[in-house]
Amino acid sequence: MYNRTGSLDLIKKINRNLVLEMIRSEKKISRALIAKKLGLSRSTVTSIVNELIKKKFVVETGLGDSTKDGGRRGIELGFNPKSGYGIGVDIGRTRTLIVLTDLDGEIEHKEECKTTATVEETLDLVQSFIQKSGIEKDRILGMGIGLPGIVDSREGILLDVPALNWGNINLIEKAKTYFPFPVYVNNDVNFAALGERWLGSEGLTDNMFFIAIGSGVGGAIIANGELIEGHRYSAGEINCFIDREDLAQNRRNRPGQTGAFEQQISAFALEKSGVSPEELFVRYTRGEPEAARVINEFVQYLSITIANIASLLNPQRVIIGGGVSGSMSAVIEDIRQQVSELTPIRTEIKLARLGRDAGGLGAVAYVFQQLQDAEDL
């Protein structure tokens, strides 16, 4: 049967989000102009704006310019990014980054520290971080925690995060005993992708693939503006990609072991040359033969992977991030050229811009999106 009430609620939510995003993007805009641009009635816009003002997400900034026919000047509205804050926690194998931002993603406080041995120690770190930030807990809207592995984002359960050895705990339930605000968890690469989409990319893109190359390798898919997590939350695990050469070399994907593809292009793989990835790329730019051999092989493996991703998913943009990406400016044109020769499907290929902050900022972006969908933002 047609659910009229449910449909009306959905329309109300869509309209609310449209109004909020227009105020956010336009900086200053009147109620009348919002109604005109969105094709909504003035009464609908007024009702939505009054609700947003009550929650302090929107403020009246003063009178706008007179209309062309000399009509009464409308009151302009502006987004209030300081009306709430979000926390992003990016937990890596060895280091943990914590950021606190306003609603525009402006970092108000940031700390990086050694990854702790237990979940309790990590949550204690966040408690201390909040105290040092000077922001009261009732002004924090939520927190996102990114982890290096497979996470049930709906229930908050760690499914396969061997790097931390925390077991299959319910991190959301544990966090509820520490914090009064909602907490969300997800894979760290998924959050890094959201961070780059929110604040790093040259223009917002709704269809992208993010590749993280660091001590390991991971991927994240954003399609039609939505994060694609897949069945059992394993979408984007490109570390497990395999080809015929892997089979010939008896490289397999086994539980608890490094993925076949990860063995070829991660920082760990590059370090087999005897130097750090950063030094290896420096030697490559100098034209040293051994460095050139290793990097050329790296570029070929990565280009084949991107070509296959482009052919399968047709993303507008592929963004390469992670620790190794900071050294890859010398090879990005080679990658673009090789990908164009391997597939007729065109995609933009860019290096990430947020660096180490991507995961933490993406965790905050995820929090704000979840709250906006729930009409708590």
From TrEMBL:
<protein>
    <submittedName>
        <fullName>ROK family protein</fullName>
    </submittedName>
</protein>
<dbReference type="InterPro" id="IPR036390">
    <property type="entry name" value="WH_DNA-bd_sf"/>
</dbReference>
<dbReference type="InterPro" id="IPR000600">
    <property type="entry name" value="ROK"/>
</dbReference>
<comment type="function">
    <text>Transcriptional repressor of xylose-utilizing enzymes.</text>
</comment>
<dbReference type="Pfam" id="PF00480">
    <property type="entry name" value="ROK"/>
</dbReference>
<dbReference type="GO" id="GO:0042732">
    <property type="term" value="P:D-xylose metabolic process"/>
</dbReference>
<dbReference type="Pfam" id="PF13412">
    <property type="entry name" value="HTH_24"/>
</dbReference>
<keyword id="KW-0119">Carbohydrate metabolism</keyword>
<dbReference type="InterPro" id="IPR036388">
    <property type="entry name" value="WH-like_DNA-bd_sf"/>
</dbReference>
<comment type="similarity">
    <text>Belongs to the ROK (NagC/XylR) family.</text>
</comment>
<dbReference type="InterPro" id="IPR043129">
    <property type="entry name" value="ATPase_NBD"/>
</dbReference>
<keyword id="KW-0859">Xylose metabolism</keyword>
